[in-house]
Design brief:
There is one protein chain. By secondary structure, the protein is of the alpha+beta class. It has one domain: CBS-domain (Roll), CATH 3.10.580. Helices cover 41% and strands 22% of the residues. The strands form two sheets. Strands 1-7-6-5 form a four-stranded mixed beta sheet. Strands 2-3-4 form a three-stranded antiparallel beta sheet. The protein starts with a helix and ends with a helix.
């Protein structure tokens, strides 16, 4: 099975200057846990709901009314390709201990996102079990 057969399509991104309140509202509206961050037509990071809480709200100096995506985003981004075997993407997620990966096409354009939830609906049980164990490990 290929990543494109399991991923969810139509993922949008926001720029690093996007207010964190807007990022949070997008997460709520779309029932998702992360938003890719892009600048100059390149992915530059990711903001997760956990980033907002741990890097933002738990920081005594954080002002949600003024904060931007860049203030809490995890810089750098790891991706997989839509034509990768699903097992390759799962092993990549395991190695990185991440729950989601942006999916790019051969032109390096983001075309979707693959998550543990997507994998749970598509991957064989043994592949899924190994992924969940690795990704859920304390780090």
């Amino acid at each position: 099975m290929k990543v494109k057969d399991a991923m969810h399509k139509g993922v949008d991104w926001v720029n690093p200057d996007t207010p964190i309140t807007e990022v949070a509202m997008l997460m709520r509206e779309h029932d998702i846990g992360c938003i890719p961050i892009g600048e100059d037509d390149h992915l530059v990071g990711m903001v997760t709901d956990r980033d907002i809480v741990c890097k933002g709200l738990a920081n005594g100096k954080f002002d949600p009314a003024r904060a931007q995506a860049r203030d809490v985003m995890t810089e750098g981004i790891h991706c997989c390709r839509e034509d990768d075997d699903l097992a390759k993407a799962v092993h990549h997620m395991e190695a990185l201990q991440v729950r989601r990966l942006p999916v790019i096409n051969k032109n390096k354009r983001m075309v979707g996102m693959i998550s543990l939830g997507d994998i749970s609906r598509s991957a064989p049980n043994d592949l899924l079990a190994g992924c969940v164990k690795s990704v859920a490990a304390h780090h």
